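Dear support,

I submitted the protein below through the web form. The confirmation email said the job was done, but the results page showed an empty box. After a refresh the structure appeared. I'm attaching both so you can tell me whether what I see now is the final result or a partial one.
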Amino acid sequence: MPSRREADDAERGANAPDSGANADADSRANADADSRANADADSGDPAGESADPAALARAYYDAIDAGEYERLASLLDPEFVQRRGDRTFEGRDRFVAFMRDGRPNTDTTHAVDRVYPSGPGVAVRGRLRDADGDVLFAFVDVFETEAGRLTSLETYGAESSDG
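What the results page shows now:
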């Protein structure tokens, strides 16, 4: 199964008429961000204190899509709260346990369409895809951050008109 980043790159390539130069620039920017995140993790700073909100949001999706739940936990504040239409998760441990053990489908990929990094946090628009690449639903996630960790997440979802 492709990673979220591979799915994003494929989606951009399929939809962007001038994808060559832009894709190369995006790939270099993503590699730089990955390198910074790895340096933060290697320095004993699991959440990457120096990570900007957009990098934290991308790391969040990468960790979930890869099934790296310890890494996911390292990105979240202990008092992390997620609110969505059907439920609220209070506390990092409860949220991570649900993502690991309670989701009806863990073989999914987050295809990020746009990241809005302005403000005290970051907003992300994207689509959740199943293992076959079919869109399960579209979403907008609004993250708040503090001290290099995600402190809260508001998730807004809707059935996608794709497929």
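Response: this is the final, complete result; the empty box was a page-load delay. The beta strands are 76-84, 87-90, 108-116, 121-130, 135-146, 149-158.
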